[in-house]
Structure formats: structure tokens, C-alpha cells
Amino acid sequence: MDLSIFLIQCLNALQYGLLLFLVAMGLTLIFGIMGVINLAHGSFYMIGAYMAYALSPIVAHAFGGGFFSVLVIGLILAVILGYFLEWAFFSFLYDRDHLQQVLMTYGLILVFEELRSLLVGDDVHGVAAPEFLAGTIPLGDIMTYPVYRLFISAVCLLLALGMYYVFTRTRLGMMIRAGSTNREMVQSLGIDIKLLYRIVFAAGVALAAFAGMISAPVSTVYPGMGSQVLIICFVVVVIGGIGSIRGAFLAALLIGFVDTFGKVLLPEAAGVLVYVLMALILLWKPDGLFKTS
Amino acid sequence: MMDKFFSGKLLFVGLLFAGLALYPLVASSYGLDLVSKIMIYAILAMSLELLVGSTGLVCFGQAAFFGIGAYIAVMLSPESESGHLLWLLPAAILAAAVYALFVGALSLRTKGVYFIMVTLAFAQMAYYVVHDTKLGGGTDGIYLYFKPTLGSILDLNHPQVLYFFTWVFLVWTFIFLAILLGSHFGRVLAGIRINEQRMRASGFSTYPYKLAAFVTSGGIAGLAGFLFAVKDGFVNPEMMSWHLSGALLIMIILGGLGHLRGAIIGAFAFVFLQEFFKSSDIFGAFAKHWQLGLGFTIIACVAVLPKGLVGLPEVLRKRLYGGRPSSDAQIVLK
Predict the structure, then answer these.
(1) What is the residue extent of each domain of chain B?
(2) How far, in Å, are A192, B72, B262 from residue B217 at the CA level?
(3) Per the CB 3.0–4.6 Å rule, which of A102, A245, B119, B129 could disulfide with B61?
(4) How far is A283 from chain B (nearest CA, A)?
(5) Which residues from A are below 8 Å from B138, CB to CB?
(6) Residue in chain A nearest B57 by alpha carbon
(7) Model confidence at B152, in pLDDT bands (50, 70, 90)?
(8) Does residue A276 fall inside a structural domain?
(9) Which residue of A has its CA nearest to B123?
């Protein structure tokens, strides 16, 4: 492996890891704070990707197009969806057995998959990257690297920093952290925990959908993309330690690198590497790398 | 009151088993095959119920033990003649139990969601071994050309013989697990589910109990895998995929956790619902979108039946006569 290939793989790994982080962050927030094991999280990623595909002609017709208007409209729709779902399907489940929520989110996966099939169909689609990001930059003598992948990495990194700021420096972040530690105490201090939950859930859905939207141009849009990303994101969340944003970030990068280089160096064992890694880490540290208690 | 309730449950299970025993009299060959499949899933679901509902250990890798039982049954069968049942069946159960011992010994160091994911990881490893290596025939799987026999007494090529063979194991598994859960061992498992720390404080070393439950569960899953391989005559890696592990969890939650009969009811309900929504006689062209109906039914079940289908009589009684439902132990993951 020469240097430029190595560099390209590094960039790919970084981009994949950062994208995983966006999806996994929603998952870890929803689990860490609300205690909901959300199997439908992968579906939100799928919904985002399909929105990037299905919304672009509509947006082009109404506003004269533009990649960013699709992103913004998709994001607004995702927030509304998350807010509605929390109200309709989760708000009455919090004092129930955790596994009841698993059952509920499993039902939601089936519903979302079929709605997708009814509305958009079962075909595989490609989504074009916006023109000004469609080029490549030279890397070494003969290699080039697509600008759009760098754009994904940059956006994810910015979002991660933004989330870090919200979490550690703002009042909302403080309430969210407090809510994950002790729900009753936060409630008794006069904070509307129901509203807080609804915001967290909507934010989680929006993050996953956003990740789906911006990744649509590099990974085609296909049925079943949700369940694939779901399991790998659970791996990220668990390795990082549930509820820990920092842990999820490091775990996502770790998985990104292990998976990308695994596919290059050990193609026959690539599928299993991630799981071996998770098993080893959890046997070494049974509560993940960064436990928040 | 308690006795009456208890005998009501036994009556239900007795009637269910009797009904299943009489079913071949009226069954079509399709129905016979379908119900054989469901009975195997019911055995598998009961094995998972021992871990999830009775001990509070949510295992997300049950399909691996199922698959190992099935693969061992096929791989140990001679290629040109029938293998002997009395050695193939124990071998399949033993292999699954040994892998369960390995997985359990390691993964029981973790708890809650971490436990879920470690069991998934080990199941995925087994999946990739048969999927990506030459060992298990790769993605195509392997065929079992000659079904195991017991001398000339038992010919499993007949669907009806196979049906009763499965039925016997279903009843056996139910009775075995019911006795196990009623014993001292089962009471300790219930104690671990409700409050493990308190069990330790009262002098129980909980780890060996949990490991024993895990190995027992894996062995029964291996039995189910053996039955499935014999029924279908072939095995493929999808038997070990996490989709099956997930579907099994859904079955036992749907049926009602904490009750053995819940696992059986859940397996039947889940497969019947699938078949119902897939039926093009009822839904016509819309049967293609069967997951929509199944999804909404599951959501409705969660909303209306907090204890799963097992709690249905109680919900109905409450609707009719009023009164508060009794509280059940919960499984909390965190």
C-alpha cells in the first residue's frame, strides 16, 4: 500500500466514521436520556436518504432547486416527524418494561419500510451531488479525491462541534445531561421533562435523517439501508459507552478506520472485524470506553 | 383464587397441545409444514424465554445456537446414507451448548444493553464463519440428503411422522422448562431477574446460575436447530442472522414475557400474523405490502396489551368487571 492509497483510505475512514457518529449520536442521546432502545433509528437514516432523492424534483419545481434547500426542508420535516412520533408512540411508554419499547420500535420499522415501498418504490436510486461539490481534487501524482466526501467530513465535524457546544455550554445541554442522570429530580426542579424528551427525540431523528440526506450522493439510496446502519450504530454506541457523546465520537472513528482498512487489508474477514473489536472492548471494559453514570 | 387461575393456565396449555396433536387429521400438507415450522420456533422461543423472561438476560444471539445445532446435524450426517438419530441429536444439542458455554462465560461479565450487544457480536462471528469460509458451504448452505433414522422405527421423510416428532419435543421442552422454573434453580433465576444484588447479598453466587441458564437455553436452541435442519433438509447462513434473533425476541415480547406459554403463543401469533397479511386471497395485490399491517398490529398490541397476548384475558376481564390489574416484574435495561 503506497502513501497516496493509504491517505485516500484514511480520508474514507474519517468520512465513514464521522457519518456513523451523526447517526449514533441520536441513538445514544435517545437511549441515554430517555431510556428508549430505538430500533427504528436506522429507518430515520433511510427516510433521510429517500428524502434527498424524492424531495429534489419537488423542491426544484417549487423553489428552482438547490441542494441546500432540499437539506433544509428535509431537516424541518424530520424534526416534525420526530416530534410527532414521540407524542404519538413513545410518550405513554416510559414507565413500561424496556422491551415493550423494543417491540414498538420494531413495529415502526416495518411500517416505515412499507410506507417507503408504497410511496417511492423498491428500486435503487442514485442521488447527484451538487455541481459545485461534484469535482475532485488531485492527491499525489495520479490519484484524485472527490470534493463531496471532504464536504461530508467537514459538515459532520462542524455538527459534532456544535453539539459539543450545546451539550457542555448551554442551559438546554445542562438540562439534557441532568435529565439523563435523574429524571425525577429534574422534574421536581420545575423543568418540563416531557418537552425535553420531545426535543431530544426530534433532535435524534433530525440527526439521523440529516446523515442519510448528506450521505445519499455517495452511498446509493436502497431499501434495507436502514437496518444495515442500525446495527453498526448500536456497536458504536455500546463501544463508546451509552449516553456518552465523546465515547460515541471516538468509537465511530475507531469503527470507521477498522472497517475501511479491514476491507482493504483483510477482505475475507472484513464483516466480522467490527464485532470482534466490540466483543474485545466490552470484555475489557464491560461498560464501554467512556461510561457516564 | 390462585389455584383456579393456575389450573386455568394448565387447561389452556393442555388444550393447545391436544389441539396440535389432532391437527394432522384435518391439515393440508402446506398447513402441516407451516405448523411444524411454528412448533420449532415455539421451542426456540421458549429457550429464549428462559433467559429473557425468567432470568432477565436479554440475549440477542439465540439464532447462533439454533444455527449451530442445525449445521452440526447436517455436517455430521454421512453423505450417502442416513445418520443415526441417537447420536446426531445429542451431538447437535451438545455443540450448541458448548458454544453457549463459551459465549455465556464471556458475555455474562456485562449487563443490560452491553450484554445484548456482546451476545449479538458472538452470534455475528458464528454467522460470518459459516457465511464466509468453506466450512459451512458459504452463502448457499448445505443439503441434508438423508434424514436421520432410528433404525426402522422412525421415518422422518413422512411429514406426519416429522410433525409428531416435533410435537413430542415441543411438549417435552415445555414440561422440562416448567419443572426447571418451578424448582429451586428456577426460583434463584427469578430472584436474579428481580434484584440480582439482593440475591448476591443473600449468599447466592449468581454467575454460575446465570451461566447454567445460558447453557441450558443454548442446548434447547440447538435442539430446535436440529429439528429445523431435519424438516427442511438443508441449512444456510440466514439461520444464524440477527434478523432471526430479533424476530424471536419480538415473538416472546408479543406473547408476554415471564410466562412459558407466552413464548408459544407469541411464536404462533407472529407467524400467523405474517401469513395472514401475506395472504393474497384476503388482501389481493396489497399483500405485497404485508409488513404494513403486521407493523400496525404490533404497535396496537404494545398500546393495548402491556403484558403481551398472555395478558389479554386480564385486560378483557378488567374491561368487563373493572378493577386494577396485578403488577408484574419488569425488565429494566440500563
Answers:
(1) 29-321
(2) 44, 17, 16
(3) B119
(4) 7
(5) none
(6) A99
(7) confident
(8) no
(9) A275
